Amino acid sequence: MEEIKVFCPATIANVSCGFDVLGLALDSVGDQMTVRKTSENGIRITKITGQDLPLATEKNVAGVAGTALLEKSDYQGGFEIEIDKRIKPGSGIGSSAASSAGAVWAMNELLNRPFSDLELVEFAMQGEKMASDVAHADNVAPAIFGGFTLVRSYEPLDIVSIPTPSELYATVIHPQIEIKTSDSRKILKTTISMQQGIQQWGNLGGLIAGLFKNDYDLIGRSLHDHIVEPIRSILIPAFDEIKTNALKSGALGSGISGSGPSIFALSRGEKIARHVADSMTDTYQKIGVDFDIHISKINNQGVKKIN
Amino acid sequence: MEEIKVFCPATIANVSCGFDVLGLALDSVGDQMTVRKTSENGIRITKITGQDLPLATEKNVAGVAGTALLEKSDYQGGFEIEIDKRIKPGSGIGSSAASSAGAVWAMNELLNRPFSDLELVEFAMQGEKMASDVAHADNVAPAIFGGFTLVRSYEPLDIVSIPTPSELYATVIHPQIEIKTSDSRKILKTTISMQQGIQQWGNLGGLIAGLFKNDYDLIGRSLHDHIVEPIRSILIPAFDEIKTNALKSGALGSGISGSGPSIFALSRGEKIARHVADSMTDTYQKIGVDFDIHISKINNQGVKKIN
């Protein structure tokens, strides 16, 4: 295979109680990317549509992640990348992770899979490091593994795949304001109370158990974040109203997607996910906030080949 | 049924990464208790063997927990309780929880189960409150539900049963010093760093996932506690040596049982659990610390009827 076209999923990191450790991949929201082998060594980004992003390899997350892979590879050639960027940067649904993960996943396919998924996550994390100063894995891990993933530990990197109940849908609304991940990290406190910690790991344990048990009620009861959400939600227009209305419309839970400003809700079944989308849409239309909205099944595959 | 004899299991709370939320029940360590109906209202503790504990209903955890049940019951009679106390108070393996849980479970059986397991936990927590000032559930929940349990939340009380891999064994060594739960809580800090929190909920998520997946390696990789263990272990003789030797002997993980001073290790299979017991025994014999040692399968039933 000399060329591959891939779908690079958007992802929701944190998922309320899983700050910095949990993430999930979306199915109907993502970039497309074409990667082809070249005889010349190194990565060249030849075309970006959809967004105005740098073509320079060392300034583009796909270039940085791809370079990390190339450096560990025996392959003597290089790659050309074309990106059709459909996820808006700064939206909080893993825009940079989609490009980083998509690039390294596609290259690995073209090289006949010399690297494990875990290694691909490590390469993609280099793209994340360039994008937000922190080599976090909570978006790139679900983008590569699919479904829900837990970053159990960073040193050593330990990624755990968590099964996804089949009726789980995500609704994501993106108010058209930009918050940089690095800025939204700065406002967080560096300490928390023991009591907050206990609540959080109780909920995270409950969420993981709920996903394994297909227990939608337990998933809903566990989707709380008493630590980060109260702080970050201040930056997001009408967060409380969006969340309250989502829950009233039947969502299992709702919270900030990644570092925001997107707000996600998880629901049982597409019908409820659409109700939730309607309620979110109403809220922003009433107060005149521009937005994009997405409804998606959870994507169990992660990055995938398309035609 | 007018009379029932029950086994009341010892329990390991916290289990390293699950401070205040996780617990497990043991199979071969526990009290025995005989409970019989009486026409007279109220609880009477008629006999305690094995330990010197108060017979007065309001000063005995079984009496307090049983009274909490009676107050919610339509039953007009009362109960007599005989306790054969085999778990030493203050050992850190749920001595008070075994009495509280055993009493209310036995009474519920004699009344033809008017109460759910969750309600029994709530009654038993009243016994815990008397014993340690805090109505914690991380010992009484596994004592009643069996296996591993997660206390997802206290308000409202939400207990989640977690499946137990069949080859999992616990080794527990109890150095003969007493630490009161209330004292060992006092030395804890009331704040933790965000980074410690993230590590902890990553590990707790990993442990829950490992238990569901029967992934013993993942269980082992997750059994870390960077928050409470470094502080509480100072109170326990040769903690680091016991733990290090347990891991060298093949244990998946090792930590403080509840608030100590008992130290537990989890192993895959009885053979390794016995090696671990040998290494723990050697360590305390060398330095002249008196101890009890237990090797047990995980008990998936919790309190149970015996003859």
From TrEMBL, chains A, B:
GO terms for biological process: threonine biosynthetic process. Transmembrane segments: none annotated. Pfam families: GHMP_kinases_C, GHMP_kinases_N. Residues 68-147 form the GHMP kinase N-terminal domain. GO terms for cellular component: cytoplasm. It catalyses: L-homoserine + ATP = O-phospho-L-homoserine + ADP + H(+). The keyword Iron-sulfur does not apply. Residues 208-284 form the GHMP kinase C-terminal domain. It is an enzyme of class 2 (transferase). One of its GO terms (molecular function) is homoserine kinase activity. Keywords: Amino-acid biosynthesis, ATP-binding, Cytoplasm, Kinase, Nucleotide-binding, Threonine biosynthesis, Transferase. Its EC number is 2.7.1.39. Coiled coil: none annotated. It comes from the Bacteria. Pathway: Amino-acid biosynthesis; L-threonine biosynthesis; L-threonine from L-aspartate: step 4/5. Gene3D superfamilies: 3.30.230.10, GHMP kinase, C-terminal domain (3.30.70.890). Its main location: cytoplasm. It is found in: Cytoplasm. NCBIfam families: PRK01212.1-4, thrB. Belongs to the GHMP kinase family. Homoserine kinase subfamily. Catalyzes the ATP-dependent phosphorylation of L-homoserine to L-homoserine phosphate. This is Homoserine kinase. It comes from Flagellimonas marinaquae. The lineage of its organism: Bacteria, Pseudomonadati, Bacteroidota, Flavobacteriia, Flavobacteriales. The gene is thrB.
